[in-house]
Amino acid sequence: xxxxxxxxxxxxxxxxxxxxxxxxxxxxxxxxxxxxxxxxxxxxxxxxxxxxxxxxxxxxxxxxxxxxxxxxxxxxxxxxxxxxxxxxxxxxxxxxxxxxxxxxxxxxxxxxxxxxxxxxxxxxxxxxxxxxxxxxxxxxxxxxxxxxxxxxxxxxxxxxxxxxxxxxxxxxxxxxxxxxxxxxxxxxxxxxxxxxxxxxxxxxxxxxxxxxxxxxxxxxxxxxxxxxxxxxxxxxxxxxxxxxxxxxxxx
Length: 251
Hints:
single chain; alpha+beta; five-stranded mixed beta sheet; 9 helices; 5 strands; 61% helix
């Protein structure tokens, strides 16, 4: 009877190496599958986040509606039925508002308001100091006495604006300025309205209008309810007015 042959040490060693190599290959395959799975998972997450962001942006853009204003409550330059309505939010102590009034507003009046293409409105946003409020109360008093004289006072305050950090818009200064400009109003009534804060509630209404419209700096301009991107660029404002006019025509 023949005896079974014993495996040689070399053959036994070779078998171990093959088993080890097979184990390593399986481990590599497992690692590769794990890496691929991780990459796929990350890609899916990024795609999902991108689609959600795109959806949010799209819905925000679609949902954005022009801001509504009660134009009948606001001081106005130009025709009431002008197809485009420009609204400025300003503070009488704001240096940038003074620059806007000196540089941009005259162009708006000449090119857009006088032509009948647009009307121009103002909302008091008194926030710089206590005398911002005093100036606004004086302006509202003049507006209720004589709407045309309001705009003369408006320009005069900005043309004679004091330092932003100083309290210059006092009762005496504002009444004196109205007298100097020879406004066709009752100066004693103006003084009384400032002292008694006659139009305080109306000023608070203006400030709330600014808050509701998301206005947080001055000057801020809205054109038919849409915030202007460049309030110090008349060409940009003119282009926005033309766009608004075309949109109004199409309705």
